[in-house]
Amino acid sequence: MQITSDKVLLGFLAGSIVFYLLSLQFVRDTAVVPYRDSVAVGADTTSVQNSPNTKQVTLDSSSYELKAATATRWKLPKRLREISGLAMTNDNRLLAHNDESGVVFEVDYQNGSIVKSFGLGDLKKPVSGDFEGIATVQDTIYLVTSSGRLYECREGVDGETVLFNVYATGVGREYEIEGLAYVPGERVLLIMSKNPMGSEQKGKLTIYRWSVDTRQLVENGHTIVPLIDITRYIKGKKFQPSGIERHPVSENYFIVAARQNAMAEVTPTGQVVGVVKFPAKWHRQIEGITFASDHTLIVSDEGARKRATLTIYPMNK
Description:
By secondary structure, this protein is mainly beta. It is 10% helix and 39% strand. The strands form 5 sheets. Strands 2-3-4-5-9 form a 5-stranded mixed β-sheet, with no helix packed on it. Strands 11, 12, 13, 14 and 15 form a 5-stranded antiparallel β-sheet that branches. The longest helix has 28 residues, at 2-29. It starts with a helix and ends with a strand.
């Protein structure tokens, strides 16, 4: 009788052990996989795992290939030799401008031709200024100068002269300005700094927010990025920004630097996600950046003594 009880006990223990081992295997097989939301740009850096509530684009090779072999490049007409900023309209048309005069061009980015142009004030003698960025807000166009002055106008037809308003933002007292972009959800313009005017601003990249509703800077609404957070990714100690655009998917800011031939991705709170280089040799001086409706990356290069160029980098399929 005792022997039979022992056998039953041993059988029960053996069954319990087998059940426990099978349970462990089931847990391993059904473990939760971390959520990954990565729309990537460029190459050379790794993806970042995010929670389901975060929106980030990471810089790796799985989305945009910044390679000459996959890019489309157009040499632009001589009228756009000093092309600077780029912006897309709501109906996916590309607008651009030169550095020194208030003339806005519509460019067909499928072939590099000029569709139309219109001037602020007078097309034959448009308003002059060191224009460094362009953005569209519905049917309104904004241009920013290096001194931080904002020009506001409607879109004109070919050859038209349009009236404009001018706003003094005051940011030119702290930095030279070098870029403009629009954030629809916040209804603010992003005004990006370049060269600091004082010692307090050195080593920082500041992005100001200007409300299109109140027509003034958002109080305490600027983002500060320590330049060392960007330069540690690339050779050299400088990153001199020349253009900024908000990515329509991630909502992060993509910033190009002409002299460094580089592009940085920064979150709205100032965290640097990564930096990539443009390897194509034709990039002499990248001045503008924007995204088409299909998220294609478009950048412009000033021509200097040659023809300016427009380069289109499609997303990987």
